[in-house]
Design a protein that fits this description.
The complex is a heterodimer of chains A (120) and B (112). With 120 residues, chain A is mainly β. Helix content of chain A is 0%, strand content 51%. Chain A has strands at 3-7, 11-12, 18-25, 34-41, 48-54, 59-61, 69-74, 79-84, 93-101, 109-110, 114-118. In chain A, 38% of the residues are buried. In chain B, the strands form two sheets. In chain B, strands 1, 3, 4, 7, 8 and 9 form a six-stranded mixed beta sheet that branches. Chain B has a three-stranded antiparallel beta sheet with strand order 2-6-5, with no helix packed on it. Classes of the chains: A mainly beta (120), B mainly beta (112). At the A-B interface, strand 4 and strand 5 of A face strand 7 and strand 8 of B.
Chain lengths: 120, 112
């Protein structure tokens, strides 16, 4: 059973860049069994898909965030990371990492989430 | 505005049955598998149903899923107070690229 844990700063200033890390235990992030997904949830609102990074490092992004987000992978630390730049208050949310198994169409393991507040 | 449409809220008494709908289009629900997630306030979403109607191990058979055309439905029977949560449908939208995942806006279930 996979375990995922997000970590990062709880407070970031507008216009700055958010960096979040998801540490994976239970398997390797480079295992060809998994895709790693980031999803966020603004306070009181629904879930929004951000992007996916595959076991090989290929990344796919949700169009509205495409120009501001970068996903990466550090196999030595067994981590995947999210960078989101040019932050505004609208980026305030709980950020989740989750896993999707290869050729499966659902997210079966989730981290506990990391609340990020964008404020000066 | 979510790509998938869910009712904002539903309610029913303990022991009763409730259904939650999720409406989409041919590019998403109509041609792809639907999954459902339960989110108890303050916690991460949890997979409830996958591939339209399959339950992960540990999910009781009180929870069921179905799909017809461009709509999907989550059913919960024998409602318990512990079922109070937000429920989200999700699927892949082929018009959005190779990883075009979309969610419904969520439905808040109240067990009266």
């Amino acid at each position: 059973q996979l375990q995922l844990q997000e970590s990062g700063p709880g407070l970031v200033k507008p216009s700055e860049t958010l960096s979040l890390t998801c540490t994976v235990s239970g398997d390797s992030v480079s295992s060809n069994d998994y895709y790693w997904v980031w999803i966020r949830q603004p306070p009181g609102k629904g879930l929004e898909y951000i992007g996916t990074i595959s076991y090989s490092g290929g990344a796919y992004y949700n169009s509205p965030l495409n120009s501001r987000v970068t996903l990466s992978m550090d196999t030595s630390k067994n981590q995947v990371s999210l960078n989101l730049n040019s932050l505004t208050a609208a980026d305030t949310a709980v950020y989740y990492c989750a896993s999707r198994q290869w050729q499966m169409y659902y997210f079966d393991s989730w981290g506990q989430g990391a609340l990020v507040t964008v404020s000066s | 505005q979510s790509v998938l449409t869910q009712p904002p809220s539903v309610s029913a008494a303990p022991g009763q049955k409730v259904t939650i709908s999720c409406s989409g289009s041919n590019s998403n629900i109509g041609n792809n598998y639907v999954s459902w997630y339960q989110q108890v306030p303050g916690t991460a979403p949890k997979l409830l149903i996958y591939d339209n109607n399959q339950r992960p191990s540990g999910i009781p058979d009180r929870f069921s899923g179905s799909k017809s055309g461009t709509s999907a439905t989550l059913g919960i029977t024998g409602l318990q107070t512990g079922d109070e949560a937000d429920y989200y449908c999700a699927t892949w939208d082929s018009s959005l690229g190779p990883e075009g995942w979309v969610f419904g806006g969520g439905t808040k279930l109240t067990v009266l």
